[in-house]
Amino acid sequence: MLNKIVYPIFIFMFIWLTAGSVNAAAPIKIGALFAVTGPASFLGEPERNTAQMVVDEINKAGGVKGRMLQLVVYDTQGDATKAVQAATRLIKEDKVAAIIGPSTTGDTMAVIPIVEKAQIPLISCAAGIKITEPAKKWVFKTAQNDSLAVARIYENLKRRNISRVAILTVSDSFGSSGREQLKAQAAKFGIKIVSDDTYGPKDTDMTSQLTKIRGSQAQAMICWGTNPGPAVIARNAKQLGLKFPIYMSHGVSSRKFIDLAGDAAEGIILPSGRVLVADRLPNSDHQKKSLLSFVKDYQKHFKAEGDHFGGHAWDAVMLLKGAIERGGDSPAAIRNQLEKNRNFAGIGGVFTYAPQDHAGLNKDAFVLVEVKQKDWVLVK
User: Fold this and answer.
1) Which contiguous run of DSSP H or E holds residue 239?
2) What is the band of 23 on the pLDDT scale with cuts at 50, 70, 90?
3) Which residues are CB-neighbours of 153 under 8 A, at least 6 positions away?
4) So what family is this one in (predicted)?
5) pLDDT over 90, % of the chain
6) Domain residues of the chain, as ranges?
7) Model confidence over 288-347: pLDDT tens digits?
8) How far is CA 22 from its chain centroid?
9) What is the layout of strands, in order, in the sheet containing 269-272?
10) I want to staple 83 with a disulfide (CB 3.0 to 4.6 A). Which of 73, 76, 163, 319 is the partner?
11) Is residue 77 within 8 Å of residue 37, measured between CB atoms?
12) Rounded to whole angstroms, what are the CA distances from 29 to 21, 92, 203, 318, 337?
């Protein structure tokens, strides 16, 4: 009789304890939307690589509060429709606790309504200011705002006593956002835009736009876009013999731009996160330790340079790790802890979020770099 009572109790306890241990070991699912292939793959591939690298390192060290992270990655191909479909799948089928990415401003703007409705935190890796201005409850970002990049360029122009500029921007979400900021901030820095033209994301020759700019009174040109267009513009400018200074946006802040532009990249200046010049930073720099660690790890894993774009994914994963450690793994807890994040020294800058600031960076997140002898140097 005793056995008949004890045995079922034993079985019940075994099932309860086993279920509890399985539940405790269940991974925390993190979704990721990256343009791994397609025109924006120079953004999405290093982001995907970096995110997986960091997740693997976290898991190797014991996970987060004893639980492993599981990264669920979908390739948006830089297509807003595919980004929306993938975001929906991550939320409804994969049941992720948070999402990092997408890689581009256009993809990000398309998925914002999805995550806001589902109440799932999103940490975008794209730069457009409209992603977080005005602030959206569930949306954060790690890429530095284009408004900060414009300010860095204009400060340098002002120091060089250059007041007349031409702007040439790509006709997509990133280019449109940059163009708005270039026009909005010009007067503040005493800048006059004497030529304002655009080019298409798939255009392969911009000679006509550059010829028009050559005929203007421009003392410098600012090109706003992502590869490969800016590299084409650099080569066309060299072919036309344009002599004025050329500035690019942070959208080409990687070795890929130098590879694409070749000798035409020489002398071009652009705002970038510090990762491109990590080894040249003073030891007092708050980011240097994280930067050098990231560069070393990426080189070890992928035999390539860790860049500005992979850094956005590094920051996103590490910010999520910190939020989960402090508050738990529910979407609401992650969101709340992200908003309380203070002084996190990442790859893109030192992040401090607030209820009305889900970008978390100031213009010090950027340095100006120049291409010299096919390498990056700091602009003093």
Assistant:
1) helix 229-240
2) very low
3) 222, 247, 269, 270, 271, 368
4) Belongs to the leucine-binding protein family.
5) 87
6) 24-144+287-362, 147-272
7) 998 999 999 999 999 998 898 999 999 999 999 999 999 999 999 999 999 999 999 999
8) 35
9) 192-199, 164-170, 220-224, 246-248, 269-272, 367-372, 375-378
10) 76
11) yes
12) 18, 13, 39, 14, 17
pTM (2 d.p.)? 0.86
In which order are the strands placed within the sheet that holds 98-100? 69-75, 28-34, 98-100, 122-124, 139-141
Angle 185-189-192 from CA coordinates, rounded to 5°: 80
Q: Rounded mean pLDDT of the chain? A: 93
CATH fold for domain 147-272: Rossmann fold (3.40.50)
The answer to whether the Cα torsion of 276, 280, 284, 288 is positive or negative is positive
Tokens 């010829």 — which residue? 211
Asked whether the domain spanning 147-272 has the same topology as the one spanning 24-144+287-362, the reply is yes
How far apart are alpha carbons 42 and 37 in whole angstroms?
Answer: 8
**CB-based contacts of 320: which residues, under 8 Å, 6+ apart?**
30, 98, 100, 123, 334, 338
| Length of the chain measured in residues | 380
Task: Return the closest-CA partner of residue 87 out of 53, 55, 121, 56.
Answer: 121
User: Is the pLDDT score of 21 beyond 50?
Assistant: no
Q: Residue 92: which pLDDT band, with cuts at 50, 70 and 90?
A: very high
> DSSP characters for 142-184?
-SPPHHHHHHHHHHHHHHTT--EEEEEEESSHHHHHHHHHHHH
Residues 184-197 as b/e (b if ≥16 CB within 10 A, e otherwise) read: eebeebebebebeb
CATH of domain 24-144+287-362: 3.40.50.2300
- The contacts of residue 357 (CB under 8 Å, 6+ apart) are 132, 135
Among candidate residues 290, 146, 299, the one with its CA nearest the CA of residue 225: 146
Cβ contacts of residue 329 below 8 Å, gap of 6+? 28, 64, 67, 97
DSSP label at 201? T
**Residues 262-280: pLDDT tens digits?**
999 999 999 999 999 998 8
Asked whether residue 19 carries a pLDDT value surpassing 80, the answer given is: no
